[in-house]
């Protein structure tokens, strides 16, 4: 027994224990490597597998002949894929990347709206409300609201009422751009201390290499202790290593160091993109877009030294002709408004581009295509090493337009030249029209047989490539487009014209309590500053001037108040009904037929026609204008639109209802003041009265009551349809006197209420009188007064005359094609209205417009030299007779026309704000004719003037 016990000693126990341990380890190894080896191998591989989205090319946009106006090209992109392995190399890698980009003349992709030097936000909008909304969204997306919510509403548990959300938003707007920047520097851990930590982690084993890099990157003076500390750090456990790291950061002052602000922002752009893209899954961060091929190959050669960096290709939107057609093409940009809407549609709101204006926006769903994707395997450096599967992207549809690229080009180039000539020679006009500010204009050409737009030019324009190509939008461009210095502009504008006005007179300050930039926000109340993103062709409203006279002639002839042969003697000054209407002629033109009157654009003749139409009814002229698309009946159901696919304004001709609608508001404001002066106070200290304006101090009951009084009076002003108007308003006033604490003790008598009612009746009658003056019709007859239309409306009205009375829906798109140019859908011409004119009416009006371009004293007689017979009408549209000279503005210039005369194909309208006279714009019309009839003119051996 003793011998057996002796054999089981501590050595035996040790070997037995070791045998058990190795058996367990062996079992585990067999289980991991053999039994479950395939499972764990698959898991390891899956950890490195992801899907990289493959964006679809946007559909092309081509003109009617197939000339490409917008397409795509494959560009080289420099991207960064961060992994847990390569993230510690972030700062070192990015420094190398930035250096290589700089050396090769490339720019970092930078759509980050927070800028520096000075600190500011650059959101692509001039609208103040939109800018605030985008600033709030920017800060919320980056979590800056969280600290505010915890501080203000600690018990909310993340569920805030709308009122609380609004409070948080107000606080977010108080955070300055500089404060925002500092908060993000901290949030993204952009600091030398983080860089130092990463560097030590990289070179943990090689203390000598770490020692050299630390001195180089952080400019630390050599220290005998540093190497020893690094050796100790490299061989310490994680707890001790953390203590050593913190000591090193503190000892060498690294915690006090900061990167240069410009470098901070470079790092921030990448870190911010990573954060924003993290909401929509994995996606590489684009560091450099549209880099040159040579640069791409330089990076290819150095990928081993740049963990996480890769080079790929991606389609970029391209506009081959730059500014050409920007007015209707629009542009694309990153999603900034209503991101939730686009998330629901499957967009990646952190990086996807969408159509932001023009056709790019209107047909976003057709143009965008369907994105593809690649299932790839990444190595530990985040680089693609194998493609496992692919879903091919499908291009968007192609838009084939009615636009003729050559006609469009002729319109834009010639319009630019004409405007420049007007600016350079501002006093060429005999009547003193100063054209120095002829900086904004439009030119439109329409196919009279279909309503298709052949040209739609708006000047100044912009190059859409600036927005589709990352990095092209410079700060100077941004300021020009979205943040113009109106104060500087106004000072130069005033000085150059020696005007007796102040900056505040022209561009009054906008009260903006949230403005932290120090720059005074101003309003361009007289529409002086040229706006590249404002479509002057579809949205500028202006009196048509004498270009409206053919319409007046149509109405007069159709109503029978004139005949083609009848003459009216030009007495120069028209004085019926107390009106004082002047002809622009200095001497009488004598007895004029309608053809003669159109040829020399005689005001007196058309004043008389207007008066005769007025005798038939105040809205007689308006009824004809509506048939030709110059406004719509405000009492009817017609849609106020030419039908064009892109956004537009739609102007209106004078009519009684619109005049009442326009007059009601200013007369209401006058009435507010009058009702405050019902009686004079006995002590001589001012007046007592009834305030029907809603005040912030008013209770809901009082506000509702005042609103009811206002609405009742306005209804009577506009429509004269309130039953028992006097009794109704009188009862409401008495109720207000009884309930409003501010006037309960005024002891208003029935006599005071009668005084109030008299003032109300005076206001109602003033609106009626203002809207029914015969002078309104006289002004409208010559295209002045309240007549206001867009160049697009005017072009379509002339096209309707030219083709004999068929008004088509205006359209830009002719066909939708697939990526192989197969037709998906044809856009057929659509007739909106058929104007049935007597043959003699149409003949007389067209002959009158022919006389304009062919008579020796016709206002567009220079077009008589053009070999293709054409007709037209010039116009000069007064901006504001009382103030235009004072503020440096003058009449707008308008020209309309069509060709050929005998078989019209094309109708045009050219318009320039402050252009003086329509005759100055004839070169633009002629250039469009040249481009449209190019082949025919070549056969005539015509010497082209403009193309």
From TrEMBL:
<keyword id="KW-0133">Cell shape</keyword>
<keyword id="KW-0472">Membrane</keyword>
<dbReference type="GO" id="GO:0005886">
    <property type="term" value="C:plasma membrane"/>
</dbReference>
<dbReference type="InterPro" id="IPR001460">
    <property type="entry name" value="PCN-bd_Tpept"/>
</dbReference>
<keyword id="KW-1133">Transmembrane helix</keyword>
<feature type="transmembrane region" description="Helical">
    <location>
        <begin position="12"/>
        <end position="30"/>
    </location>
</feature>
<feature type="domain" description="Penicillin-binding protein transpeptidase">
    <location>
        <begin position="780"/>
        <end position="916"/>
    </location>
</feature>
<dbReference type="InterPro" id="IPR036138">
    <property type="entry name" value="PBP_dimer_sf"/>
</dbReference>
<dbReference type="GO" id="GO:0008658">
    <property type="term" value="F:penicillin binding"/>
</dbReference>
<dbReference type="Pfam" id="PF03717">
    <property type="entry name" value="PBP_dimer"/>
</dbReference>
<dbReference type="GO" id="GO:0071972">
    <property type="term" value="F:peptidoglycan L,D-transpeptidase activity"/>
</dbReference>
<dbReference type="InterPro" id="IPR012338">
    <property type="entry name" value="Beta-lactam/transpept-like"/>
</dbReference>
<feature type="domain" description="Penicillin-binding protein transpeptidase">
    <location>
        <begin position="441"/>
        <end position="649"/>
    </location>
</feature>
<keyword id="KW-1003">Cell membrane</keyword>
<protein>
    <submittedName>
        <fullName>Stage V sporulation protein D</fullName>
    </submittedName>
</protein>
<dbReference type="InterPro" id="IPR050515">
    <property type="entry name" value="Beta-lactam/transpept"/>
</dbReference>
<keyword id="KW-0573">Peptidoglycan synthesis</keyword>
<dbReference type="Pfam" id="PF00905">
    <property type="entry name" value="Transpeptidase"/>
</dbReference>
<dbReference type="GO" id="GO:0009252">
    <property type="term" value="P:peptidoglycan biosynthetic process"/>
</dbReference>
<dbReference type="InterPro" id="IPR005311">
    <property type="entry name" value="PBP_dimer"/>
</dbReference>
<feature type="domain" description="Penicillin-binding protein dimerisation">
    <location>
        <begin position="54"/>
        <end position="388"/>
    </location>
</feature>
<keyword id="KW-0812">Transmembrane</keyword>
<keyword id="KW-0961">Cell wall biogenesis/degradation</keyword>
<dbReference type="GO" id="GO:0008360">
    <property type="term" value="P:regulation of cell shape"/>
</dbReference>
<comment type="similarity">
    <text>Belongs to the transpeptidase family.</text>
</comment>
<dbReference type="GO" id="GO:0071555">
    <property type="term" value="P:cell wall organization"/>
</dbReference>
């Amino acid at each position: 027994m003793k011998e057996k016990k002796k054999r089981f000693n501590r050595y035996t126990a040790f070997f037995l224990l070791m045998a058990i341990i190795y058996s367990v380890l062996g079992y585990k190894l067999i289980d991991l490597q053999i039994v479950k080896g395939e499972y764990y191998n698959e898991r390891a591989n899956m950890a490195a597998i992801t899907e990289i989205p493959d964006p679809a090319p946007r559909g092309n946009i081509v003109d009617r002949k197939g000339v490409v106006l917008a397409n795509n090209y494959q560009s080289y992109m420099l991207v960064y894929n961060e992994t847990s392995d390569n993230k510690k190399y972030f700062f070192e890698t990015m420094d190398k990347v930035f250096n290589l980009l700089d050396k090769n003349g490339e720019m970092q992709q930078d759509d980050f709206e927070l800028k520096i030097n000075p600190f500011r936000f650059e959101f692509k909008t001039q609208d103040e409300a939109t800018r605030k909304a985008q600033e709030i969204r920017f800060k919320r997306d980056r979590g800056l609201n969280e600290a505010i919510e915890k501080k203000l509403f600690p018990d909310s548990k993340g569920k805030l009422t709308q009122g609380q959300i609004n409070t948080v938003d107000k606080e977010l707007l108080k955070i300055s751009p500089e404060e925002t920047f500092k908060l993000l520097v901290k949030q993204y851990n952009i600091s030398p201390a983080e860089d130092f930590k990463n560097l030590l982690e990289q070179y943990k084993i090689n203390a000598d290499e770490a020692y050299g890099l630390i001195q180089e990157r952080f400019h630390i003076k050599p220290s005998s202790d540093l190497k020893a500390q690094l050796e100790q750090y490299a061989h310490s456990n994680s707890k001790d290593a953390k203590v050593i790291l913190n000591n090193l950061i503190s000892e060498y002052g690294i915690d006090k160091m900061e990167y240069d602000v410009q470098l901070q922002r470079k790092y921030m752009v990448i870190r911010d993109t990573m954060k924003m893209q993290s909401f929509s899954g994995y996606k590489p961060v684009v560091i450099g877009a549209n880099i040159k091929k040579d640069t791409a190959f330089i990076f290819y050669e150095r990928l081993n030294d740049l963990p996480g960096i890769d080079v790929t290709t991606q389609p970029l939107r391209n506009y081959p002709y730059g500014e050409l057609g920007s007015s209707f093409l629009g542009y694309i940009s990153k999603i900034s408004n209503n991101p939730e809407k686009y998330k629901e549609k499957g967009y990646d709101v952190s990086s996807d581009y969408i159509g932001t204006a023009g056709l790019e926006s209107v047909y976003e769903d057709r143009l965008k295509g369907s994105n593809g994707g690649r299932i790839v395997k990444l190595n530990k450096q985040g680089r693609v090493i194998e493609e496992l599967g692919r879903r091919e992207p499908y291009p968007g549809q192609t838009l084939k337009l009615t636009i003729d690229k050559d006609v469009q080009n002729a319109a834009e180039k010639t319009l630019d030249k004409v405007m420049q000539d007007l600016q350079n020679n501002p006093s060429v006009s005999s009547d003193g029209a100063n054209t120095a500010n002829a900086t904004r204009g439009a030119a439109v050409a329409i196919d009279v047989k279909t309503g298709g737009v052949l040209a739609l030019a708006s000047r100044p324009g912009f190059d859409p490539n600036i927005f589709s190509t990352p990095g092209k939008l410079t700060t100077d461009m941004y300021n020009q487009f979205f943040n113009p210095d109106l104060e500087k502009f106004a000072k130069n504008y005033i000085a150059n014209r020696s005007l007796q006005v102040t900056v505040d007179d022209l561009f009054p300050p906008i009260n903006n309590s949230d403005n932290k930039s120090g720059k005074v926000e101003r309003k361009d109340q007289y529409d002086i500053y040229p706006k590249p993103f404002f479509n002057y062709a579809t949205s500028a409203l202006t009196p048509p001037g004498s270009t409206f006279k053919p319409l007046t002639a149509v109405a007069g002839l159709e109503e029978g108040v004139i005949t083609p042969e009848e003459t009216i003697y030009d007495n120069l000054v028209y004085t019926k009904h107390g009106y004082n209407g002047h002809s622009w002629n200095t001497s009488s033109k004598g007895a004029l037929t309608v053809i003669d009157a159109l040829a020399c654009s005689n005001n007196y003749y058309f004043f008389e026609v207007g008066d005769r139409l007025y005798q038939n009814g105040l809205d007689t002229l308006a009824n004809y204008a509506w048939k030709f698309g110059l406004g719509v009946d405000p009492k009817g159901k017609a849609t106020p639109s030419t039908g064009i696919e892109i956004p537009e304004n739609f102007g209106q001709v004078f009519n009684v209802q619109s005049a009442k609608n326009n007059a009601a508001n200013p007369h209401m404001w006058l009435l507010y003041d009058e009702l405050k002066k019902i009686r004079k106070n006995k002590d001589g200290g001012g007046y007592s009265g009834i305030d029907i304006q809603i005040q912030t101090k008013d209770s809901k009951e009082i506000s509702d009551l005042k609103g009811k009084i206002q609405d009742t009076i306005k209804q009577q002003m506009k429509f004269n349809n309130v039953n028992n108007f006097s009794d109704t308003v009188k009862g409401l006033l008495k109720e207000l006197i009884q309930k409003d604490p501010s006037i309960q003790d005024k002891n208003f008598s029935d006599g005071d209420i009668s005084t109030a009612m008299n003032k109300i009746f005076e206001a109602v009658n003033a609106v009626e009188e203002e809207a029914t003056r015969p002078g309104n019709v006289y002004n409208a007859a010559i295209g002045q007064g309240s007549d206001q239309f867009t160049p697009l409306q005017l072009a379509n009205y002339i096209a309707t005359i030219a083709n004999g009375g068929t008004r088509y829906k205006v359209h830009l798109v002719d066909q939708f094609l697939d990526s192989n140019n197969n037709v998906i859908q044809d856009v057929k011409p659509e007739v909106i209205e058929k104007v049935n004119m007597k043959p003699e009416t149409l003949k007389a009006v067209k002959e009158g417009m022919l006389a304009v371009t062919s008579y020796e004293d016709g206002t567009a007689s220079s077009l008589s030299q053009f070999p293709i017979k054409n007709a037209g009408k010039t116009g000069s549209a007064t901006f504001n007779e009382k103030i235009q000279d004072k503020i440096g503005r003058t009449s707008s210039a308008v020209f309309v026309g069509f060709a050929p005369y005998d078989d019209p194909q094309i109708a045009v309208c050219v318009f320039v704000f402050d252009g003086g006279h329509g005759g100055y714009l004839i070169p633009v019309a002629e250039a469009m004719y040249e481009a449209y009839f190019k082949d025919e003119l070549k056969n005539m051996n015509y010497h082209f003037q403009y193309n």
